[in-house]
Amino acid sequence: MKKIFMAAATLMLAVGFVGCTKSDDAPATKDIKIEFSVADKAGFNGGSRAVKSGWADGDKIMIFFKVGGSWLAEANTTDNTLTLTYNDGSWSATKNNWSETLTNSTSGSFIAIHYRGDIALGENLNNIGYYFATFAGGEYLSTSGDYTITGGVMTLPTLAMEMSSDMVQFSVKDLASNSDEWELMVNFDNHDLVADAACVVTAMNVNTLALRTDVGGFIGNISEEWMSAVVNGADRSFVGMLDAENNEVTTKYVFVLKNVEDYEYYKFEYAFSESTKFVGKSAYLLPELTLQADGVTPADGCKWTRLQ
Questions:
Q1: Mean per-residue pLDDT pooled into runs of 10, the chain (308 residues)
Q2: Cα separations (Å) of 303 from 65, 268, 284, 299?
Q3: Residue 3 CB neighbour total at 10 angstroms
Q4: pTM of the model
Q5: How many C-beta neighbours within 10 Å does residue 19 have?
Q6: Taken in order 97, 33, 159, 239, is the CA torsion positive or negative?
Q7: What is the pLDDT of residue 72?
Q8: From the CA atom positions of the chain, what is the Rg in Å?
């Protein structure tokens, strides 16, 4: 696996939270209340049903804090973080085992992140940060800013969670009904479809998202050639980061879909005009993969072809 760190914009994202809340966790040295508001969720450009937008019940945002020049982050724990959870049209906040360092501070900075499911730090990343242990693919949103604590109240700025300007989503129509695990690679022209690493899009796969503490809290992703799938309505969606060097103007992009269960590969070639290339923050809907009764051969009229 090749490892490439990519800054997800400048992380000057703004997260907003609605209402005040009080933690139900074990009390810290001080009972700090939280004032916050969350802006509408950023989504991909494009009008297809492959685009998932809007906050949904169970969505979470986790906030990490920096006090006195040091990030209060540790491997395999949520200590000193703030978890925001969306349900029934509103947000609630839970303080996760805050230390005196945080509760006794009067100001500091923070970084917030959202991806699908629960959010948690994993193993140490070569002493420069921590993996997000539960990241399973799909889009992620982030923001950063400063907080203050006055009179027992932490005040956060209005936060608008945003995605990187280089993030892009590809969805395969109606693939969610297939229970197998799928991955996608995006290439161009006549490059080796399976082995060539010069992809147009680099992947954000399981355990490839990280909190970077060595560069001011930047979030980066360790990139691979194959993008993991997440269920998105009736579709399977694959999210990655555009590779500026390889997102060149071309007449043909080649998508390779891999069935991870039995290592079957399917190719779809898409011809663009000579002036076209992929655009960040955009979603693209790919044709449906329909198979014959044997479960591996594309059906008549299917735009995907099997690689053998």
A1: 34 33 47 95 76 85 94 92 96 96 96 92 86 87 95 95 90 91 80 55 71 75 77 91 70 85 89 70 92 94 91
A2: 49, 6, 16, 9
A3: 12
A4: 0.81
A5: 13
A6: positive
A7: 93
A8: 21
Please report the pLDDT score of residue 264 as a whole number.
Answer: 92
Query: Could you tell me the two tokens for 191?
Result: 């490059």
